[in-house]
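pls design
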């Protein structure tokens, strides 16, 4: 699949790795009142914490051709500013890429819905998108998407404080609500950033979860209900996986996930889809409802 690119192939978004404190004007990322505290993570001022998780990755060419996505472990190193306490640097490590975004080499902006932040490298070498934890109500996790143009790789990730398998409920039901975000590439239309609401209706006794997204919006293309996603995920070995499809059935693929928090208070993961409508990759995160 070949698509025309945006100026930076950018905004792979969907989100994670809080870079608040990397600059920005008032009200924007890093502006007055901008905080991104993972209250259950060991993130101390002036120190670096490593968060491990899972992701999916593919090779990309200058012509925007995308290979098949493959699962891979990821690590995110987050450094807190010693004075403000905001996260001042984020390094993403995957099987093929190690890349850092900070206030010296990146520019930040919010997505239209205010939930996702885009860190775009000033030298056009790549971008990372992340879900602002505070604005999304996350305590134990975050999710994101990235592209390393010079290295020729791109992907999505979900990182956080994963729930131990023994602490995941086995006989109850629960609804989780949150957000999703990613990058969509469409034939002849280039890349665009996608954001949406996300929900999972989980039956722990049956080891299943109904995954869905709604109110899908493209940053440049506007409302895109045709890209709402849905599918059934199975719960096994403490994780989730299953097949998903877009509302217009122009793309299909897979989604995965993990429960986060001491008792599975949150859930998050990644997804990728392909088909006649193009390609879509990103992540999601959701919080258990009362």
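designed seq:
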């Amino acid at each position: 699949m070949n698509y025309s690119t945006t100026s930076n192939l950018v905004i792979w978004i969907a989100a994670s790795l809080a870079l608040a404190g990397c600059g920005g004007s008032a009200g924007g990322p890093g502006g007055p009142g901008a905080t991104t505290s993972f209250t259950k993570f060991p993130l101390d001022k002036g120190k670096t914490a490593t968060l491990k998780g899972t992701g999916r990755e593919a090779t990309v060419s200058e012509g925007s051709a995308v290979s098949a996505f493959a699962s891979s472990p990821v690590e995110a190193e987050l450094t807190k500013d010693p004075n403000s306490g905001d996260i001042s640097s984020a390094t993403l490590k995957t099987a093929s890429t190690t890349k850092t975004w900070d206030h010296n080499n990146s520019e930040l902006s919010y997505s239209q819905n205010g939930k996702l932040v885009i860190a775009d490298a000033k030298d056009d070498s790549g971008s990372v998108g992340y879900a602002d934890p505070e604005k999304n109500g996350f305590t134990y996790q975050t999710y994101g998407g990235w592209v390393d143009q010079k290295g020729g790789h791109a992907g999505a990730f979900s990182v956080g404080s994963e729930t131990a398998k023994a602490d995941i409920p086995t006989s109850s039901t629960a609804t989780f609500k949150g957000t999703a975000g990613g990058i969509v590439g469409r034939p002849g239309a280039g890349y665009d950033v996608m954001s949406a609401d996300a929900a999972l209706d989980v039956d722990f006794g049956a080891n299943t979860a109904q995954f869905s997204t709604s109110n899908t919006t493209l940053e440049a293309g506007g409302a895109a209900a045709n890209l709402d996603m849905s599918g059934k995920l199975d719960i096994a070995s403490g994780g989730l996986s299953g097949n998903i499809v877009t509302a217009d059935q122009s793309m299909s693929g897979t989604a995965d996930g993990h429960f986060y928090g001491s008792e599975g208070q949150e859930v998050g993961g990644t997804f990728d889809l392909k088909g006649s409508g193009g390609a879509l990759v990103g992540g999601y995160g959701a919080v258990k409802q009362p």
